[in-house]
Design brief:
Blueprint lengths: L6 E3 L2 E2 H5 L2 H5 L8 H22 L4 E3 L4 H6 L13 E5 L3 H14 L4 E6 L5 E6 L10 E7 L2
Parallel strand pairs: 5-7
Antiparallel strand pairs: 1-2, 3-4, 4-6, 5-6
């Protein structure tokens, strides 16, 4: 499956925002449509770039997911990853995660902000930013147990 690569914003590439190990392993095309791509660009500019400006490089664990990928990785059926409006951000430790969380909460017009963790000790920040800012709910949960 051929991958296009170009920049969605100064520091975030199409490849990193659509990459999925699950999709590659199962040969699933995880290509966003035009509206989903517009949402990804908005997400990179409104969330990714401000984080990058303050904290330096950040690593995206998950960006856009087509329905088959979302189902394959156990995502919820109404996930904002499906619309290109969400990213999961790698955090190296609890302290850095808390810094990201507090920065986003105070400085970003977000839809949903979750400091997520799982039973295996994994931690990440899930944040969504709606393409239409009027739809942002500003839902924030500091300790969210993922399934």
């Amino acid at each position: 499956m051929a991958r296009k690569n170009f920049m969605l914003s100064p520091h975030f590439s199409y490849e990193e925002m659509t990459r999925s190990a699950w999709a590659e392993a199962h040969q699933v095309d995880n290509t966003p449509d035009e509206l989903q791509l517009a949402a990804l660009i908005n997400l990179c500019w409104k969330l990714g770039e401000p984080l990058r400006e303050v904290f330096g490089p950040i690593r995206v664990n998950s960006g856009f997911r087509c329905p088959r990928v979302n189902e394959g990785v156990g995502g919820v059926g109404n996930s904002k990853h499906l619309s290109g409006e969400a990213m999961d951000i790698y955090i190296p430790n609890h302290e850095r995660g808390k810094e990201y969380y507090l920065f986003i909460r105070k400085n970003i017009d977000f839809d949903q902000l979750l400091f997520e963790y799982n039973k295996r000790g994994g931690m990440w920040i899930h944040c969504s930013v709606c393409l239409d800012p009027k739809e942002n709910r500003h839902q924030a949960i500091m300790n969210y147990m993922a399934k």
